[in-house]
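FIELD: query
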Amino acid sequence: MTKTKTLAPVDDLFDQSYKLSYFCESLSKYVENQLKSAKTDHNVSKTLKTWYKKDIFHIEMLEPFCPECFSKSVIKNGLKERKLIFYDKGTVESEIQAYKCKKCGKKFNTDVSEIVEDNSNFTYDFKSRCIELVGLFFGSVRNVAHRVKKDTKVDISYQTIENWILEYKKDNKDSNNPYSGYYIFDVEWVKIKSIWNYRFTLFDSKQNIIVADEIYSKENSKNIKEFLDVNTINQNRIAITSDLDSKYKPIIEALGFKHQWCYFHTLKYLKKIVSDYIKENELTDDEIDKIYKEKLELFSLFDSESFKIARGKFNKILNRIKDYSKVIQSIVYDYLMPYFKTFFAFLEDGNIERTSSKLENFFQKTFPKSVKRLMKIKTGVTSRISIRIDIRNQKKVFDGQPPSF
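FIELD: result
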């Protein structure tokens, strides 16, 4: 009878990943059960093998190789102890597998840079969770540190959290990304070390994304022009919606944009003119009622179905302008006549945003008034804004919605 040799599944028996259990069914079952009880964790890294055994977190390479000569002929060579801090598990005693290359003799440890930075016990998991809390608590490091200690029993300093915030970098958008050409521009005041600074933001109103978001020490025409020009270079320049700040209009139009004044800001401003006039003059009830009716007639222009219809209604008002009260005449002559296209550009082009409310809503959600006076340095402001934007985008992706900023 001819005897047949049973070959091992590999030729290289020096490879430490091949065990005796592969050749014995009963032993294989034993090893399988042992591995299950060791609570192997494959979520920590795709290149590392990790598991817990007797409360010790063990880390070794999934496919060991020498970083010097890239040989896979390596053997295990002891363990290196290290404390690692995870958010859900707290402080964990860890063992990091060391190796020795049989080919070149180099000794090396398992590379754990995917889990934790060099010279740090705080894992990326712990750090990212703290950054998330910064976004949720609008940047208050004291509140974050208190929450972290409550969740993890880990006492972390305020300065450590602040350092992580300052290190945070938002991925820069591809400068070649084609924007729609329809924008909203606004400026938010931010106090840094008791000095007012200005957050310039440009928002693509069709794509619902931030084009640019920067902090300036002065809100002057030079900075505004530079900001808008640089951040729309090689992009479509169709229209910008803004509030009624007098500095914006000449800059926006000089850069080749149509300019739309915010509908809400316009109505608010015109209402104030009428209200101030009534307060400053002794008028009868009939005169006041007449002014209010005329004001509503002007405001109805903004509800017109088209630019042509609005212009037709306005011409009818002009034909009998002498019949209107002085305050309404003033509004017509000083504002509506010279800037009619700026007030009603949205009726000429339906893609032009009629209000700046999208951007104002973005300001409130990313950097609300409650924290505007707490910042000490510019980087702290920009990092917190970036964190807040990314947290909101992650939530939208998780909920199955597209990012809105």
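FIELD: remark
The longest strand covers residues 74-86.
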